[in-house]
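Action item from last week, closing it out:
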Amino acid sequence: MDTMRDRFIATTSQLLDEDPRLALVLAEISRAGFDRAERAHPDRVVNVGIREQLLVGAGAGMALTGLRPIVHTFASFLVERPFEQVKLDFGHQGVGGVLVSAGASYDWPAGGFTHMSPGDVALLDTLDGWTVHVPGHPDEAEALLREAAAGDGRVYVRLSVQSNDRARPVGAGTGFTAVREGTGGVVIAVGPMLDNVLAATDGLDVTVLYAATVRPFDGAGLRRAVSGHRAADVVIVEPYLAGTSTAAANDALAELPHRVLGLGVGRAELRKYGEMDEHLAAHGLDARGLRERIGAFLHR
């Protein structure tokens, strides 16, 4: 199976052929995959070099001319390093675009902490008007990318090497999708966390909701999910900073007695970089770690 990043390259190359409104801005990352597209559309495929602030600024400048920019690099260089440009050049100027990241929280541990970005979604939460997609499969990444490219708003698509075994329905109006039904609590699995959550909750009387779009947060879907439960106990399992969506869940359930547990990447820096699976286990996001923490919370 191809990766989400492979699918992004293939899909974006095709979209550039089909839609003269689209432009692609790169900062060296993934450039080799866009060689053909760069030759075919030299005026709409721009590589700015290792200049991430310019990357975002150039994309916003293209948006001001009426183009629909797709801006791409690693998450740490797309959201964290040029955050001021994301805030001002897109948000303050009121223009739209599609930010597509690679690397996720720790997809390439050998790259070190500079290439890790567990705080990207939390950082975007400080800004208004961003839609955030966290696909869990290459097919989902393609569908969400096509939808984002066809729109006009500000969209962040967070790609990862980690992937679920199969794709789920995604896109406008989908909201949270019930993958498993139960009455003893609700577990929200975000993007590539779904397979581990399903393994961790096997045999537990819980509802498992799947979320590939986390902003806007589907508060109505969460309220529906807890309506038939013995208690409004909710666990959110996210592939980025733990607790990123707990405030949104608390707001959605403000009129109900409830408990919310946010599971995700911890704040402590793991300096022995290892492999991606080792990071999952260290943060308790493998099936075993999730089973222990979800079970302890729901049966407290």
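Closing note: The chain has a mean pLDDT of 96.
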